[in-house]
Amino acid sequence: MAEKKHILTYAGLKKYEDELQELKVNRRREVAQKIKEAREQGDLSENAEYDAAKDEQRDIELRIEELEKLLKNAEVVDEDEVDLEKISIGCKVRVYDVEYDEEMEFYIVGSTEANSLQNKISNESPVGQALLGKRAGDVVDVETQAGVIQYKVIEIQRVS
Fold it and tell me: Taking the model in full, what pTM does it have?
């Protein structure tokens, strides 16, 4: 079975590459030093610092493996080539929430980069799926657990 493609923006790609570099270069060295210092304390069977450093080392190696796999299967969306006629991954969308009479802004990203605190919504989320392919002026009904939400698409922009 083929690996799932991870759709990323250039900003997301850079973020993950930087994290991987930090883990490989700095964090590995820091943990190796912690392990060395803990070993020098003698008996490892009751050495909490040694156990904690080994746990941290394991977590770092798992994250490195996860990031390498993600980046190997990354498909980067070129925001400069985003079609502003219709909503697609890599664009910023301003919508009007009909029920709550308020404007909202969403960034449509791949599921790997989704972060609701930054208004980055996944193309696989109910809102993301409903908005994809829509144009400015379209009214969209989104099925959610809380019921149907209605948005009117106001504007589609490039992420700057």
Answer: 0.77
- Which pLDDT tens digit goes with each residue over 107-141? 999 999 999 999 999 999 999 999 999 999 999 99
Cα(144)–Cα(17) distance, integer angstroms: 34
Tokens linked to 56: 């941290």
| Residues in contact with 20: Cβ distance below 8 Å, sequence separation at least 6, in sequence order | 64, 67, 68, 71
CA distances from 150 to 42, 103, 107, 110, 140 (A): 65, 12, 18, 22, 6
Residues 6+ apart with CB under 8 A from 15: none
Secondary structure E strands in the chain: 6-9, 74-77, 91-97, 102-109, 120-122, 139-144, 147-158
Q: pLDDT per residue over 26-37, tens digit each?
A: 999 999 999 998
Strands (E), 14-146: 74-77, 91-97, 102-109, 120-122, 139-144
